[in-house]
Amino acid sequence: MTPSLFALTGFAAWTLLLTLLLLNMRGYYSFMSENKVALNQFSPDGNNTPGFGQRLTRAHLNCLEMLPSFGVLVLVAAYSEQLSIMSDTVMYVLYARIAQSIIHMVSTSLVAVLLRATCWVVQLGLLLSYAYQLLAAGL
């Protein structure tokens, strides 16, 4: 498996892991917590599961926001036989995503927000670079 396909698979697996954590968190709030929330009453942004629940929800949504763009770029690179464009740096997308999610779940302090934003900028910068290089190669 190429680094690009491995990173995309890892990104998807990380998103699925956060989905499982979110499912468990919602089960906890529905059945075990003193502040019970009905299964059909969870807010999409997690605002009715304060603290960790809300941060986990946002970390999961952040993955869902970036995964389609990352996936399309990897697939276009693979289809056009241009995976070499991203092979040296693509794992940084995965590392930055995992770090961003963990930081998001752990803290909302100013330092954590700045670290999280740095991880996001790394991902965005790499994806924009891949998009530019793929488009330039197609000209």
Write up what this structure looks like.
- The chain has helices at residues 3-31, 52-79, 90-106, 110-138.
- It has 139 residues and is mostly helical.
- The chain has a single domain (3-138), classed as Membrane associated eicosanoid/glutathione metabolism-like domain (Four Helix Bundle (Hemerythrin (Met), subunit A)).
- α2 (52-79) packs parallel to α4.
- The chain is elongated.
- It starts with a helix and ends with a helix.
- 26% of the residues are buried.
- The model has no long low-confidence stretch (mean pLDDT 93).
User: Over all CA atoms, what is the radius of gyration?
Assistant: 17 Å
Number of domains: 1
Q: Would you state the CATH class? A: Mainly Alpha
Largest sheet: none
* SSE order, one letter for each helix or strand: HHHH
N-end to C-end Cα span = 28 Å
Q: What structural class do you assign from the helix and strand content?
A: mainly alpha
Stretches with pLDDT under 50, minimum 5 residues? none
Helices, by number, come to: 4
What name does CATH use for the topology? Four Helix Bundle (Hemerythrin (Met), subunit A)
Strand content: under 5%
Compute the number of strand runs: 0
The proportion of residues forming helix, as a percent range, comes to over 70%
Q: Do you know the CATH architecture? A: Up-down Bundle
Overall geometric form? elongated
Write down the overall mean pLDDT: 93
The CATH homology group name: Membrane associated eicosanoid/glutathione metabolism-like domain
